Amino acid sequence: MINSARLRSCLFATLLLAGCSHLLPTTNQTTQSPWNSYEEARIAFDSIQPGATSIEELWGMGFDPLKRPNIRVLNHLDVMRLFVPNDSIHLADLHPDIQTCLLAKTDCQGYMVTLGNTYRERYGNAMLDVLNFRRKTRTSGWQFQGLIVLKKSQVIYKLVSGQPNILEFEDKKNPLGPLQDISVPTDFSLHN
């Protein structure tokens, strides 16, 4: 009789935890910016015109590293590393505007704009997750990266990359559950 009650309470607890996936942790990582989506950032970036947009106009569009977070200022050496990462790429292989900028040395600079929003949510069986037997994670969001190259105070080149839509699923299985992550110190010895 006692074993039957114990079995029922264990079964009830298992069913209760299995249906409580909303209790699992979630993470929302947002990069602070005036743009709330990849498309908004892309539209703002498309308004930059190489050869026509000045640095003051660029700042007015929201691409001011002193007022907006997540805009990295690149010196001419940083710009060189981006376009000439190794000896197999030569200056002559690059776009003519980049060539003249790199030859101008300190008059050449860049802005690296990195924006995004990533949401990670664990789902599935809460008991298996808590005990580390199985963790399912869904990651969604977007990521935008833009490069603006300036010579003196004039935009001469721009480049866009990123992921307009991120959707990833991870299913991590640990047959040993909570014992899976136990590690033995490297100096541990069974012999004295």
Report what the structure shows.
The protein has 192 residues and is α+β, with helices and mostly antiparallel strands. It has one domain (21-177). 28% of the residues lie in helices and 33% in strands. It is built from six helices and five strands. A hairpin with a 2-residue loop joins strand 4 (134-151) and strand 5. It is elongated and about 80 Å long.
Blueprint of the fold:
Blueprint lengths: L1 H17 L7 E5 L7 H9 L8 H6 L10 E4 L1 H8 L12 H8 L4 E16 L2 H5 L3 E18 L2 E20 L19
List SSEs in N-to-C order: HEHHEHHEHEE
Strand content: 25-35%
Give the structural class.
alpha+beta
Low-confidence residue ranges: none
Our Rg estimate from Cα atoms comes to 26 Å
Overall pLDDT:
86
Number of domains: 1
User: Into which percent range does the helicity of residues fall?
Assistant: 25-40%
Shape: elongated
Number of helices: 6
Biggest pleated sheet: 5 strands, antiparallel
Secondary structure tally: strands: 5
Distance between the termini: 51 Å
Please tag this protein with its features:
192 residues; alpha+beta; 5-stranded antiparallel β-sheet; 5 strands; elongated
Short overview:
This protein has 192 residues and is of the alpha+beta class.
